[in-house]
Design brief:
6-stranded mixed beta sheet; two-stranded antiparallel sheet; 8 helices; alpha+beta
């Protein structure tokens, strides 16, 4: 049994990192108790109770990943209001031609490490990697009141980190980023052999198209965000303006170096 798939089926995507970092596999699950889950960093009581109940069912011989009489997969999900972010490396095809396979592999892994950590740091979830593109979701499975703002802040941080990655790799690297907010269908999708929690809908396609439209180092956003009561970023005095994010909703977010 794949522990990652098991956690996604339980709706506990937020526990994936803790289980992976501590190499928790299916054989270790029956030995886990409430204190062990606390040590893993799972702080919410409801998550620990859900895990302990699921582990008890597994120990009793219940295996959710095995089909019963029918192999048909019935999707169970819900409509959610989310913000979807796509980010890829500008000029990646050209970069692939210029670098060897081993070097581009190293660059791509570092890019994913940086973007994934930024996304998770702002409360988002990395949905998938598609080529050199990262698809992230803010608002599912865990929602926040300010998910659109979290996505924007994450996008700005990715651009900031790309400068450091350029120095590290010895190549000028920039990202295209697209952001869209709206309704999706969130569910566990796939077959009995492989399932994953993801979101689907026109909004996902829109965010991907916005990424393609964005210029290197810029962010393209659909109309989605109402002007905040106070500035998102408080610019330090006497620091030069690095770039301005023009949102279609009629206001701008300025980033300062």
């Amino acid at each position: 049994m794949d522990v990652g798939t098991w956690l996604r089926d339980l709706g506990l995507v937020g526990c994936l990192d803790a289980f992976a970092k501590n190499s928790i596999d299916a054989a270790m699950l029956p030995d886990l108790n409430n204190e062990d889950l606390k040590d893993l960093g799972i702080t919410r009581l409801v998550d620990r109770k859900r895990l302990l109940k699921a582990i008890e069912e597994l120990s009793a011989g219940y295996e959710p990943d095995k089909p019963e009489l029918s192999t048909a997969v019935t999707p169970v999900g819900e409509h959610r209001q989310v913000t979807v972010l796509f980010a890829d490396i500008a000029g990646f095809t050209r970069l692939t031609s210029a670098l060897g396979a081993e070097e581009i592999h190293t660059v791509l892994n570092r890019y994913f490490e940086i973007v994934d950590s930024v996304i998770e740091g702002y409360g988002g979830v990395v949905d998938k990697h598609i080529g050199d593109s990262v698809m992230a979701v803010f608002g599912a499975p865990i929602a926040h009141d300010d998910d659109p703002m979290r996505a924007v802040r994450a996008a700005l941080k990715v651009h900031e980190r790309m400068a450091a990655l350029s120095i590290e790799c010895g190549h000028q690297l920039q990202a295209h980023i697209g952001i869209a907010n709206g309704q999706v269908f969130a569910s566990t999708t796939g077959s009995e052999a492989h399932r994953e929690y993801t979101v689907t809908g026109e909004l996902v396609n829109l965010a991907a198209r916005l990424q393609d439209r964005a210029q290197p180092g810029n962010i393209s956003s659909a109309p989605m965000i109402q002007p905040p009561q106070r500035p998102i970023l408080a610019p330090p005095r006497r620091n030069p303006l690095r770039f301005t994010l023009k949102l279609h909703s009629g206001w701008s977010i300025a980033a300062y170096s």
